[in-house]
Amino acid sequence: MTDSPIRVLLVDDHAMLRAGFRTILETQADITVVGEAATGADAVSQASTLLPDVITMDVQMPDMDGIEATRKIVADPSITAAIAIVTTFDRDDYLYTALDAGASGFLLKNAAAEDLIAAVRALAAGDGMLAPEVTRRVLARFAGTAGATTPTTSTTHTTPTPRPAPAGPSAPAQLGGASVDPFTESFTEREAEVLALLADARSNAEIAAALFIGEATVKTHVSRILQKLGARDRVQAVVLAHRLGLA
Q: Which of 6, 97, 178, 189 is least enclosed by beta carbons within 10 angstroms?
């Protein structure tokens, strides 16, 4: 990140909600709202014109829904914005479809103001953001285990022991259009440690502290992990890691 404010595009068909989000976000010196859209089609157009860093995206809108708008925005290589789906509907089909479409975050509209601010900052920094109440369902769905553990945001952590990549043939994993064969690329020991900490919902700073390395080094490892997994972002990397038994 640079010292420039985080540029946010607000997408929702309710003007009062957009006004509320704008008020919340613009209390922060490091965040500026650069535009608003009331339809999915308008969101796609403004994303291309304004090139925001983060987009908050409603699901149910006239003209084009937020899932399709997300898919179109993510498919445009000129747009690098991270997208957070923000909805009143705590529904699994929205959640999974949004992640598959390319969203990097998912929040409910009843989230606290500080959660919205934290989500914008996390996405701008290249981190994924899932509401705590939906994280368990994400991991259970994509890892295929009903007992997936919800990552903790506690400041007290113990460094997890990373699992080695399983041996033997396996079909490539699928998520969000990505296809990855985990056995064509091997992780170094350090990358496996970083991946395990990513799966524990650690920030780059927390990973650096846990492994006694610099944040720049963590970013390098994360980039290599994303490349090897064929993942768009940290959220997808964690989902794939759980599905493949790597974390």
A: 189
Question: Two tokens at 111?
Answer: 């989230």
Question: What distance in Å separates the CA atoms of residue 239 and residue 216, rounded to the nearest whole number?
Answer: 23
Q: Which residue would you say has higher pLDDT here, 134 or 176? A: 134
173-243 placed in CATH 3.40.50.20:
no
Residues 6, 238, 67, 219: is their CA dihedral positive or negative? Answer: positive
Domains of the chain, by residue range, sit at: 6-130, 173-243
Q: Tell me the Cα Rg of the chain.
A: 18
Q: What does pTM read for this prediction?
A: 0.68
Alpha-carbon distance of 85 to 111, in angstroms, equals: 12
* Assigned fold of 6-130: Rossmann fold (3.40.50)
Strands of the sheet containing 54-57, edge to edge, are 31-37, 6-11, 54-57, 82-87, 105-108, 129-130
The model's pLDDT over 159-178, given as tens digits with 9 standing for 90+, comes to 333 433 433 333 444 444 44
SS3 assignment, position 240: helix
Tokens 């599905």 appear where? 243
